């Protein structure tokens, strides 16, 4: 058995053996010390990404795969290859030479390096004693499916690699998908259906009016970290506040979820009380906090997801500096009170607060928006922010549900434009991804509205449309005419559109929130 070790944060990739690569060894097991197996080589579905610390991977001797290494201009990276048995065997060291400056011409896209391999005698291969080899090989990047993804990765390179070996092999993660492929494959899952691919937190919403979401939550609970059933409302009744919605709570469902996984249950609570009265009266604010915390303790929840900003914005109170300050103070007070309480299941585990925020709608933060100032100010009191990056278009202005360029602008406004600009705040964001779509009547203003997965499949079966990929928004859509000769535009998520939003969240270091899982198709979970 051979063990490889690399120093530095540069990835080692494995590819089929050829004359332009140095033969190393075939992979036997996955990596340790935080490294991950990835899809660097689709033919074999394997690869190794080395972290910032020394990491190692056990390999079997063989000639089926070869190693190649990516590294920055002028940098050096060392790959040690040593036998793990017998004990005391010598180490073979392979040192990457400095890369030469690029030159113009046809070969400008290739990276050239010289590899000096000095193999010493060891007990696994006596025939290679004192033999020196000089091998020149070319490092290149494997093109991702579709021109859009290639451009996207060049502009927004991911900060880390994740284990997504099946994605490159999934035939439907592409721009030119057909309606026949979707109809045939939407309910099929890979063998990795229970294994997480997106390593950051995943918050999924379920609603009482869509029971399919409850079943999907149980089926794919291992792919989720947080689940938020939409159950509760804080309302004003005869001059006092009441918390309604306990009749929606399904404790058997919660029990089933917890048996299958370590998922955290945080029901959504929406503040329906008139904010002008609610925020001005300290007793009402304290009453609301008391009701929410008591319900968490009584029902054994792990915390709550609170939604209020959109309601306050609808009432127009956020332009008032005094009411805005009271609103932010209420969220802080609720967060501190929730954090002082613990879960019923684990007294050492404190309750959590996730707060729902809407995205800025323009290219700059307006007075009524929840912006970076509010994000920073509430970061100590709030464990996460569920960012609603969807509903960009509507019947009066038909278009994509959540254009990727708009999502990027929202993230830039909240977290800054530089990579890793907000390493503390970014992990608290749950980037919103819609599992629903829209069927708009054209021209705008005539009608149309939201559709779910079953509606989408029915439209595909009936109209047999040609799906189009809109690269600026990174969404699929199609057009059709109904029996009244009215023209329609249908936007609904695809594997590629979801994948690109996962990549955006991954590159930013954020989690994701899904509204809502019962409205999607089964194979969406393949890329979570």
Blueprint of the fold:
Layout: E1 2-7, E2 12-16, E3 22-27, E4 36-41, E5 46-49, E6 55-69, E7 78-83, E8 92-96, E9 111-119, E10 131-139, H1 147-155, H2 179-185, E11 202-206, H3 212-219, E12 226-237, E13 240-244, H4 251-260, E14 264-265, E15 268-271, H5 275-280, H6 282-299, E16 303-307, H7 309-315, H8 321-339, E17 352-357, H9 372-378, E18 384-387, H10 404-415, E19 429-434, E20 437-442, E21 447-451, H11 453-463, E22 468-470, E23 475-481, E24 487-491, H12 495-508, E25 511-515
Give a nutshell description of this structure.
This protein has 528 residues and is α/β, with parallel strands linked by helices.
Description:
The chain is globular, with a radius of gyration of 27 Å. β7 and β8 (92-96) form a beta hairpin. The two termini are 34 Å apart. The chain has twelve helices and 25 strands. It has helices at 147-155, 179-185, 212-219, 251-260, 275-280, 282-299, 309-315, 321-339, 372-378, 404-415, 453-463, 495-508; strands at residues 2-7, 12-16, 22-27, 36-41, 46-49, 55-69, 78-83, 92-96, 111-119, 131-139, 202-206, 226-237, 240-244, 264-265, 268-271, 303-307, 352-357, 384-387, 429-434, 437-442, 447-451, 468-470, 475-481, 487-491, 511-515. Strands 1, 2, 3, 6, 7, 8, 9 and 10 form an eight-stranded antiparallel sheet that branches. The chain is α/β, with parallel strands linked by helices and 528 residues long. It folds into two domains: 2-142, no CATH class; 165-267 and 352-527, Glycosidases (TIM Barrel). Residues 200-528 form the GH18 domain. GO terms for molecular function: chitin binding; oligosaccharide binding. InterPro entries: Chitinase_II/V-like_cat, Chitinase_insertion_sf, GH, Glyco_hydro18_cat.
